[in-house]
């Protein structure tokens, strides 16, 4: 049951679902939708994005495009967005933009506007105002962008005064977010000269690969010169196109994890191994824990462990860190400890996710140990608890899974899922109904 303030997770402990095989439909990918919106904005001509995600994040970015003067229309019923691109030209030379809590909108738009002629006033939600921007903004300043901070330097709100590309060789630190590099790669296609980007840090490289593949799909190739260097050759341009957006692998992961702890089989429609999204790697960890995976015409199907026992493991989740909470949430039901590594950067996302994992598991009576770049969760029987979500959609969605096997788990502020998956709890309720009827 749910109210506007809380959601009490229906506990299914004690029931057997090994004979159940269900299908789930999830929204379009947030990561792909927002990248496609930006690429369509920079492209020459019309782009039509089908299967698009409509959530807080994508709506904020769509509104920003409109505030910049672009013709950009969304049809939520049809899950379609049409954008009339102007070949890299920004219609308005001055605009005030609000990106909400959307990290992709915040980073990608800032990069493109920071190398465009004009003055752009940028603001964000209180949550986004706390998230790091300094490495990206430092790179933009290196390129010649003037930045005036209204508050703390390196954070929203600020004003960008772009003057194009003053250099063709820059550095960026991606230790706290791979979006800084993705943003610069996308924007580099606007340069009249070859752009060379050098990086420190290796976090989130699966998302960088997604960015490069999508740039190529829209007509611009980038070259990975080394593990720490990328080049975007001059003389290219994005071209408008019809573009189909994949279902969200991050959203799918919650229902695959549900199968792992309840023993049923779940197929998520439209999720396949060739996905652009790094979060499909989460399935490999579930396989190591004893689950089985097979491909069907509908999509990938994951079945719970054949012997009913979920095994512990050590998982480097640097390639799919959005699912660290998901794995931590089901870890108490494993037969041995689960250690998650490679996720130190999630302290700087919508919340301090590492601290929130430890806080919420401890409230449930589960032993866990926070490490510099991860956490170890020990087996146990979760007791009733209120899950503090800190307005972080992934905490709400991930820890709802724990409640499927433990009595009395209540999710605070379930509406925070609007950021990426606004009807998550309805889909979860429908899935529970399909299992129990």
Descriptive overview:
The structure is a single chain. With 437 residues, the chain is an alpha/beta fold. It folds into two domains: 6-27 and 248-436, UDP-n-acetylglucosamine1-carboxyvinyl-transferase, Chain (Alpha-beta prism); 30-244, Alpha-beta prism (UDP-n-acetylglucosamine1-carboxyvinyl-transferase, Chain). It has helices at residues 30-42, 56-67, 103-114, 126-129, 134-143, 179-188, 205-217, 249-262, 282-288, 324-330, 353-363, 393-403, 424-436; strands at residues 6-8, 21-24, 44-50, 72-75, 80-86, 94-98, 118-123, 146-149, 158-162, 169-173, 195-200, 223-226, 229-232, 242-244, 265-268, 292-295, 300-303, 314-316, 338-341, 368-371, 374-377, 385-387, 409-412. The strands form six sheets. A four-stranded mixed β-sheet has the order 2-15-17-16, covered by helices on one side. It has a four-stranded mixed β-sheet with strand order 4-5-3-14, covered by helices on one side. Strands 6-7-9-8 form a four-stranded mixed β-sheet. Helix 3 (103-114) links the parallel strand 6 (94-98) and strand 7. Helix 3 packs parallel to helix 5 (134-143). It is globular and about 65 Å long.
Largest sheet: 4 strands, mixed
CATH topology description of the largest domain: UDP-n-acetylglucosamine1-carboxyvinyl-transferase, Chain
**Termini separation:** 18 Å
Number of helices: 13
β-sheet strand percentage = 15-25%
What is the CATH class designation of the largest domain?
Alpha Beta
Structural class: alpha/beta
**Physical arrangement of strands within the biggest beta sheet:** 2-15-17-16
Mean pLDDT: 95
Shape call:
globular
């Amino acid at each position: 049951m749910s109210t506007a303030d809380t959601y009490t997770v229906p506990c299914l402990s004690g029931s057997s679902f090994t004979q159940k095989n269900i299908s789930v439909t999830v929204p379009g990918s947030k990561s792909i939708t927002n990248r496609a919106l930006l690429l369509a904005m920079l492209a020459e001509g019309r782009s039509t994005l089908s299967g698009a995600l409509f959530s807080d994040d994508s709506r904020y970015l769509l509104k920003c495009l409109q505030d910049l003067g672009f013709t950009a229309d969304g049809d939520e019923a049809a899950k379609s967005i049409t954008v009339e691109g102007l070949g890299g030209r920004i219609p308005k030379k001055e605009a005030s933009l609000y990106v909400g809590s959307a990290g992709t909108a915040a980073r990608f738009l800032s990069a493109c506007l920071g190398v465009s002629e004009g003055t752009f006033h940028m603001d964000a939600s209180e949550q986004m105002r706390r998230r790091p921007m300094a490495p990206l903004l430092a790179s933009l300043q290196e390129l010649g962008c003037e930045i005036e901070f209204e508050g703390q330097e390196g954070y929203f709100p600020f004003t960008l005064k772009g003057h194009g590309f003053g250099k063709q060789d820059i550095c960026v630190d991606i230790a706290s977010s791979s979006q800084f590099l993705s943003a610069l790669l996308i924007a580099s296609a606007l340069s009249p000269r070859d752009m060379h980007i050098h990086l420190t840090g290796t976090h989130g490289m699966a998302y960088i690969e997604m960015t490069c593949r999508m740039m190529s799909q829209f007509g611009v190739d980038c070259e990975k010169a080394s593990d720490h260097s990328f080049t975007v050759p001059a003389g290219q341009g994005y071209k408008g196109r019809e573009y189909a957006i994949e279902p969200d692998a991050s959203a799918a992961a919650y229902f695959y994890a549900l199968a792992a702890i309840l023993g049923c089989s779940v197929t998520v429609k439209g999720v396949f191994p060739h996905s652009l999204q790094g979060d499909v790697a989460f399935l490999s960890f579930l396989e190591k824990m004893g689950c089985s995976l097979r491909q069907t015409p509908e999509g990938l199907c994951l079945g719970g462990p054949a012997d009913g026992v979920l095994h512990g493991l050590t998982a480097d989740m640097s390639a799919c860190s959005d699912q660290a909470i998901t794995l931590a949430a089901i870890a108490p039901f494993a037969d041995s400890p689960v250690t998650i590594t490679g996720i130190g950067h999630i302290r700087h996302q919508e919340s301090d996710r590492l601290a929130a994992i430890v806080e919420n598991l401890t409230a449930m009576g589960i032993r866990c140990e926070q490490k510099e770049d991860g956490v170890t969760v020990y087996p146990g029987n979760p007791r009733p608890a209120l899950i503090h979500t800190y307005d972080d959609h992934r905490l709400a969605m991930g820890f709802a899974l724990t409640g499927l096997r433990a009595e009395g788990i209540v999710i605070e502020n379930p509406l925070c899922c609007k950021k990426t998956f606004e009807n998550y709890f309805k889909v979860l309720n429908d899935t529970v109904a399909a299992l129990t009827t």
